[in-house]
Amino acid sequence: MSFVDLKDICMSYDGKVSILEKLNISMAKGELVSLLGPSGCGKTTTLRIIAGLIEPSSGTLTVDGSDITKVPVHKRNFGMVFQSYALFPHITIEENVAFGLKLRKLDKKTIDQKVKEILEIVDLSSFEKRYPKQLSGGQRQRVALARALVIEPKLLLLDEPLSNLDAKLRINMRTEIKSIQKKLGITTVFVTHDQEECFSISDKVAIMNKGIIEQYDSPENIYNNPRTEFVARFIGFENFISVDKVSDGLFRGKNGALFKVGRIPEKKVTLGTIRPSDITILKEEDEKEINIIKGKVKVRTFLGKSYQYDVETELGKLIANSSCEVAYNSGDIVTLYLPENRIVLV
Questions:
Q1: CB half-sphere exposure, 234, CA atoms < 13 A
Q2: In sequence order, what are the residues at sequence separation of 6 or more whose Cβ sits closer than 8 angstroms to the Cβ of residue 257?
Q3: Beta bridge partners of 306
Q4: What angle do CA 60, 61, 64 make, to 5 degrees?
Q5: pLDDT per residue over 145-190, tens digit each?
Q6: Which of 11, 158, 224, 265 has the highest CB neighbour count under 10 A?
Q7: From the CB of residue 255, how many other CB atoms can be counted at a distance below 10 Å?
């Protein structure tokens, strides 16, 4: 049974500008679900609807079997961590963390115990008397997380919480968030535009585009089997080939080249896509009769462990990565092999 259900959620302003269109998401208890997509896709609006900060134009939000669509934000018992941390600068760390408990009018002994326990979980036990300005960005982020968790919320909502941190600290913090979330078993909604960050910590990912969910699945399935061209492009597929079906598992490009494809979706497809790292540049003696296309190298780019080649073919520009053992020059004619188990149809 789902713990969180968003059913047919629509959101528009003045009845004209549509932000969300019949959005449906189901989350199991204890899952970490990420909303991923470009700016303006509706992910933050979705989070704000879940939080109760705005009310949807239509649709229902159910949590733990109860319809809370019209329940005000202060009665939802959700924890939220903002992009800006939103800590009170004039009070200590322990006072920041205790703020929500004091609003609930718990006794001092209970508050002190809960604050102590959560600061231990986020590894800030020795910082309780400091002020936010005396902490690093990562430490302030953990304070914000502790403040959201100490109230024992039904749901934890994270709105791009790592975007203000440097790259190395973001990696450390996302590991900590995942560890704490699993340790406490709390259902979590995480909003981000960073694919790597999202895929590394999520149980499920909803990829959003212009107010709709293009794909809702595990990170592994989305990475290996994007269902639409938008999803494929968003997660890093760069090569797209127009294809027509010849027979089961066999497709023809517009230049007549035949491509055998291992994974065939049930729906009608018009494009084949493949990652640059999955294309092989063949030696002449290794040439095959199927799944190949000849082309001319236009640009070679050094990537450190490999070269990337922009290759002009009869099917359009294809990008291929190859090891540094052999270097091809601009103007060289090469043969590209597209393995059937790496081509994805969308």
A1: 24
A2: 292, 293, 314, 315
A3: 323
A4: 135
A5: 899 999 999 999 999 888 777 777 788 888 888 888 998 899 999 9
A6: 158
A7: 13
